[in-house]
Design goal:
The complex is a heterodimer. Chain A is an all-alpha fold. Chain A is built from 15 helices and 2 strands.
Amino acid sequence: MSEVQAPTPTEGGTTIGTGLRRWLVRPEAPALVFLAVLLVAFSLSSDKFLSGSNLESILVSVAVLGTIALAVNQVILCGEIDISTGSMMGLCAVAAGAVATSTGGLILPLLTGVAVGALAGAVNGLLATLGRIPSIIVTLGMLYALRGVILLVTGGSWITGIPDETRVLGTGSVLGIEYPVFVLLILFVVMELVSRHSTWGRNVFAVGGNRRASRLAGLPIDRVRFTAFVLVGVFVGIASIIYLGRAGSVQTNTGTGLELQVVAAVVIGGTSISGGRGSTLAALTGAVLIGVILNGLILLGVPGIWQDAVLGALILLAVATDVLRRRLLGDKS
Amino acid sequence: MSLSDDPGTQGAATVAEALPVFRLQNATKRFGGVTAVEDVDFDLRPGEVHALVGENGAGKSTLMKIVHGLYTPDEGTLEVGGEAVEFSSPRDAEGAGIAMIPQELDLFPELSITENLFVGRHRPRTRWGTLDQAAMRAEARERLRSLGVDLNVTTSVKGLSAANQQIVAIARALVGEAKAVVMDEPTASLTDREVQQLFRIISDLTSGGVGVVYISHRLEEIFTISDRTTVLRDGRHIITAPASELDAEKLVNLMVGRPLNELFTRSPHSPGEVALEVRGLSRAGEFEDVDLVLRRSEIVGLSGLVGAGRSELAQSIFGIRSPESGEIRIDGADVQIRSPQAAMERGIFYVPEERRSQGLILPFSIKNNITLSILDRIARFGFLPRSERQTADRFAKELSIRGAKVSDPVSRLSGGNQQKVVLAKSLAREPSILLLDEPTRGIDVGAKSEIYRLIDDLAKKGKAILLISSELEEVLSMSDRVVVMREGRITGEFGRGEANQQVVMTAATGGKNRPAPELRGNEASEDE
């Protein structure tokens, strides 16, 4: 037949070349390269940077951000967005903190935080799927509404005196690893498995990659998206316990601004903001990258007022490199 | 409407020999590894209608997009009025007097006719520097009147008929002082009378010295209207000849590159019991009171013009749209189908017309596309087994998907192989009723022939198949029965023996005999 045999690019180069190419098309590749460059640059300019304790403290500092980013990553992958996580984290922390001060223990506050988060996530999910409201509007509304609930519930006062046994996820360590890092890594592995090997994980990519085709293929697109929103709530609940442990108290403004940092982490890491393309590692890489930059800036003695500007530049850079890379690789999808 | 009878335009044509409106030489355009157009010459003389024909994917649209500045050729030169030019955007092309009227009209539905005519054009100003609305309206009215229509130029374009929208698009080209107008399948959604009106407008344009490139699949139109015809096949220039030197058979052979009967596979199958029965199905504005029966081991061709409601009908059976009244029976039992999942559970699968936007998850690998619809079946406790790869391999082999490994992105495949992936996805679900919507649209002849063989094979294996197609040859050659729709209603049903181009076209157009062999469907994008 006159069939055109499209030559596969893999037939061309050497094995090293193809291996490198295959690695470079991975969504998180630019962020990882950038991370490596930063690690070298910071360690050359500050001898304190590369010490084990500093690296671990970076990971601890991004545990809350990273945990939430792992879940929001799935929401963005399926073509939606969630910008309510800042207030949601605050509310989960308030609820878990209130339970902790009255009953103590770890399990009950944890379950409370997770339940409150899941409930808020379910509201997001229902409005975005059955309500057919764009998720950016739904979660923007929820960002304000949940902050309002925090103020109503607490009456503007702080929750202090969180008992030590509740704080273990923020202060303790296991197997020589601090708990926040341990939790983050466990959740990363879980999400990696779910994303790569589960039906839901595959469906998330499909729905984000082409919602119409997914519908025609019989995928339950509403359920897939709803589940992603609920997952965010659950992970925010877990993150709120890490936060409680680290901070030891809850203020009414807890979590303010976190929602955009989370989205930034996901996008900087390499997950496409329009959905369908990305990875679990991308979300983690993005969160760590943010942590490294903030830490490095401090070690270099850069004034704190520069942080936001640098972070903003980084987001633009991440998006620009993604566009550039797609063009270079001729990726038309 | 041959212009050679007209002494006035003949004079213009003589001048044209020396100076074409534009001339494209040795044009080559590649997309990644795929060559869409290779070493093609094409020129347009003032006052002529130059028909451009070829199968889907032959490179017609790509060629015209080069002329219109949307694509930059990798090789070759473009001259306008004898001077070499390099367009970097359609705006440059329009500035040089080359206008394009795409099949999907690029009008702004919410804007008024006047506003549409002046988008991107020089707008007259009052002495205060504001837009001179009155002058714009006057010119719009004048332009439309010169085209033989009298429309209220302040109404928005979305309410106009397809024909009037076409005329607005032409008027828009004229406001831009076009010397060349490229029309891509302008008659695809027009009625007989509207087609005659369009032909009259084209003849007015050409006698005014404007050159027209006319892209169409309807050969009869080409013989009626064109002065010269150029045939493209697989991105190459095959022939440019005066209309008088070509006839329909010759043209088809040049387009396809081989006799038609070698393209189709059709073995005898004996239709069994009724698999799907539709009674009185209606949905306002889309289709009305449709009865349809589909038997096992039967291919029913569903013919009709673009917009006749065929896709909408199939999508309603598949649960994407909900019909307002009527019944659907499967294997004799009444069913309610409210979602694609429900349809799939009943053994129905719909293969959509738009491969890239509806059929494939483009960022996915070939494997992930093939198994998309069966994940819930093969999964264990929500997790995917390793055997998924073998399942995908099996279907890739069965449908001879070539060009890449199953783990490669599906976007790396050619259009024909992508279509095989879409089919593989539906077959993996093992449906008993297949609704195929333009399954060979925009793919090359080789892949087409393979897909015909596959469809024939599926029917032999007992599947009930609805073949929606705008390609008359395809419907006639493949179907056991041909059902024709027009404006949402079934207007004809013919057994294999009685179906021919004449009766099917008559039923499709409702016209008094319009023997226009519509050889191909819509133009699909060729830059895949």
